[in-house]
Write a structure and sequence with these properties.
Elements: H1 11-18, H2 22-29, H3 37-50, H4 56-63, E1 68-73, H5 79-94, E2 98-103, H6 108-115, E3 125-128, H7 135-139, E4 143-152, E5 162-169, H8 171-184, E6 190-195, H9 199-202, H10 207-222, E7 228-231, H11 237-250, E8 256-259, H12 262-274, E9 284-288, E10 302-305, H13 308-323, E11 332-335, E12 338-340
Parallel strand pairs: 1-2, 1-3, 3-4, 4-5, 5-11, 6-7, 6-8, 8-9, 9-10
Antiparallel strand pairs: 10-12
Pfam families: LacI (PF00356), Peripla_BP_3 (PF13377)
GO molecular function: DNA-binding transcription factor activity; transcription cis-regulatory region binding
Protein name: LacI family transcriptional regulator
Length: 349
């Protein structure tokens, strides 16, 4: 004989136990001011002891909002996106909201489903980082199903649909600055490790393409320096480890490496150490993303910090304004970044 599942605690249960009205309990749950301090403490203690959890569906029917925000990102496998998701979760919690993660790793059709509001509309708004969706699809959308803020650098600003905003990241400018940093240290044979041979990478607004373009522009600005471009099997530590060995075998003259992201840079550092190449004495290495492990690599990794927490805060501010009723034209905000110099780069000896 199966044991029946315990019934969820309701606001009525708390009200009956304390001898107060359901409205009073609701006011405490929703942090409304019209409750006496002693009563508020009693209700909060009962909520804790009875492990009461508000039901999202009931809240949405009562208030018109669910308190949920969907974060649709390409994957949680990479370090950057997992840290970005945590930054959004932390910032949402400060605003008394919850983040619902949705991976679009399924590809273009999965991204189309985000624009179509999924099979069912869940949450009050969407933060969406598209990779593969065509810009013409956005331009002809007219209006997003839910209030939406796009992030990344895969969106054409002129084609933003109504009901949305865009917080862009200047990947091209950041890679240019990373390369210029190495040039200022006297490095002259600078390679780019991170080119991808894939349909995603061929798009004009793909991250890998933009960072490669920023590197190339910095070389051209210096004059007379040919690029050295190393493809990788993937933007991960294993890809960096494999690619740096090939790079140095084919181009032993390389004295600095701009990596597409920090995971690649971590793999490159490991590979260089295995080949007995001193970093930064012989080869300087710079990454991108300032992941949590960056200060703890050997040597500590110089990198571009896109300030994930600032990005999350900016995005949520815009989105909550949309959810609250703002219906102005699409807004475009450029997220700041900075170069964090650590031990993996140094002046040429």
């Amino acid at each position: 004989m199966s044991t029946p599942r315990p019934r969820n605690v309701t606001m009525r249960d708390i009200a009956e136990q304390l001898g107060v009205s359901i409205k009073t309990v609701s006011n405490v749950v929703n942090d409304r001011p019209n409750v006496g301090p002693l009563t508020r403490v009693r209700v909060q203690e009962a909520i804790r002891v009875l492990n009461y959890r508000p039901q999202v569906g009931a809240q949405q029917m009562r208030t018109g909002t669910s308190g949920l925000i969907t974060l649709a990102i390409p994957s949680l496998a990479g370090t950057y996106f997992s840290e970005l998701a945590q930054a959004f979760a932390d910032e949402a919690q400060r605003r008394r909201r919850s983040i619902m993660l949705h991976s679009t790793a399924g590809g273009r059709e999965e991204e189309h489903s985000v624009l179509a509001g999924f099979t069912r509309v869940l949450g009050d708004g969407v933060v969406f980082n598209p990779l593969l969706i065509g810009e013409d699809r956005l331009a002809h959308l007219g209006r997003t199903i839910l209030p939406t803020v796009f992030i990344g650098e895969h969106v054409e600003e002129a084609g933003l649909p109504a009901g949305s905003d865009y917080v862009r990241t200047d990947n091209r400018g950041a890679a240019h600055e990373a390369t210029a940093h190495l040039q200022a240290l006297g490095r002259r044979r600078i390679a780019y490790l991170g080119a991808l041979d894939s349909s995603e990478a061929q798009q004009a607004h793909s991250t890998s393409r933009l960072r490669l373009d920023g590197y190339d522009r910095a070389l051209k600005a210096a004059g007379g320096v040919s690029p050295v471009i190393q493809t990788v099997p993937g933007w991960n530590q294993e890809g960096g480890l494999e690619a740096v060995r090939t790079l140095l075998q084919e181009h032993p003259e390389v004295d600095a490496i701009v990596c597409g992201n920090d995971d690649l840079a971590r793999g490159a550092l490991l590979g260089l150490r295995g080949m007995g190449i001193d970093v930064p004495g012989q080869v300087s290495v710079i990454g991108h993303d300032n992941i949590l492990e960056a200060p703890f690599t050997s040597p500590p990794l110089t990198t571009i910090d896109p300030d994930k927490r600032n990005l999350a805060a900016t995005v949520l501010d815009l989105l909550l304004e949309r959810i609250g009723g703002h219906d102005g034209p699409p807004r475009v905000v450029e997220a700041p970044y900075r170069l964090v110099e650590r031990g993996s780069t140094a002046a040429r000896r």
